[in-house]
């Protein structure tokens, strides 16, 4: 299992953009979006179900002035080696996500 190197794991990023930029340098170059019961990667026109990927790390960002501006960044690697990121603004996907996919993401967050 290859994750982020120790230096990156220990670094405390302050902003979402800063974190995304650092992870892109680590090879997490694709963008994932939640689509009902799977995550989709538009760049390679492929979708992955909950059993097809692992969440390597999770970052949580709080809104400075408004808690509604908070978000979670999931660092994802698929079983086929596709490495990318999924950004979830709190509540954005609440009604659109299957319970199975939500469980997969939440298990990694806790």
Notes on the protein architecture:
By secondary structure, this protein is of the alpha+beta class. The protein has one domain. It is 24% helix and 33% strand. It is built from three helices and seven strands. Strands 1-7-6-5 form a four-stranded mixed β-sheet, sandwiched between helices. Strands 2-3-4 form a three-stranded antiparallel β-sheet, with no helix packed on it. The protein is globular.
Shape: globular
Residue stretches low in confidence (pLDDT < 50, at least 5 long) are 1-10
Oligomer: single chain
Strand order of the largest sheet: 1-7-6-5
Number of helices: 3
Query: Could you say how many structural domains there are in total?
Result: 1
N-to-C CA distance? 20 Å
Helix % is 10-25%
Structural class: alpha+beta
Total beta-strand segments: 7
Percent strand? 25-35%
Order of helices and strands: HHEEEEEEEH
Kindly provide the radius of gyration, computed on alpha-carbon positions and rounded to a whole number of angstroms: 14 Å
Q: Report on the biggest sheet.
A: 4 strands, mixed
The mean pLDDT is 80
